[in-house]
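Support request, priority: normal
Reporter: lab tech (M.K.)
Component: structure prediction queue

Hi team, I submitted a job for L,D-transpeptidase family protein from Pelosinus baikalensis yesterday, and the status page still shows it as pending. I've pasted the exact input below so you can check whether something in the sequence is tripping the parser. The sequence length should be 235 residues. Please let me know if I need to resubmit or if it's stuck on your end.
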Amino acid sequence: MTIVKIRRQQIFYSVAILLLMSLIFGMVGFEYMDEKELAAIENQTMTAPSGTVSVVIKISQRILEVYSDGNLHKKYRIAVGKNKTPTPIGEWNVVWKDYNWGTGFGTRWIGLNVPWGIYGIHGTNKPWSIGQFASHGCIRMRNKDVEELFEWVPIGTPVRIEGRKIKVERTLKHQITGSDVSVLQMKLKELGYLNSRADGIFGTVTKQAVEAYQAEHNMEITGIVTKQMSDLLGI
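Reply from support: The job had stalled in the queue. We restarted it manually and it finished. Here are the results:
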């Protein structure tokens, strides 16, 4: 009986050790493959852009593009905001940069001038989230990728964020802010009524662009975008 009991214990411990080792190697292998899978898209330059730098973030594709003098220089895979905490679309600028900004933000922080919250491009301690709709609105990159980007983008760099289409549901008017205002501004720019940035702020210039649109379409000139006008604009 004693020998049988000892053998059972040996089998139990052997199985437990095998399961533990499998789990450890599985996690290591997953992270390795994950890092390899999520690396900056292959066959791209490692050199810094020589011209004026700008950034375009494509939310639907979860891709960040770096441009040099208007020409595509490099692409990175990123993570963006979840449905309930979307990444703010619009035309922003880099306004501050920092190292090791806080837990969960990786090794670099590149802050954007979004007027209704703190948003930025940063690293992550969750590399497996890259390629997903996973953040609270910020743009996540692998640490090694954001460290490279950090050196390439000076303060003032324009960052255009293109998102999944947001349906404008509320009435938009002077002094309102939000991603829906950015959608309106982008549409007015597309139609030639607005020449300024889509900064998500319904300021005087945006109001004047709305009034110009209303005048040309024989609408009451109020400078206010109603649901009816949003439907007419297709936003």
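Residues 22-38 have pLDDT under 50 and may be disordered. The longest strand covers residues 90-99. Let us know if anything else looks off. Ticket resolved.
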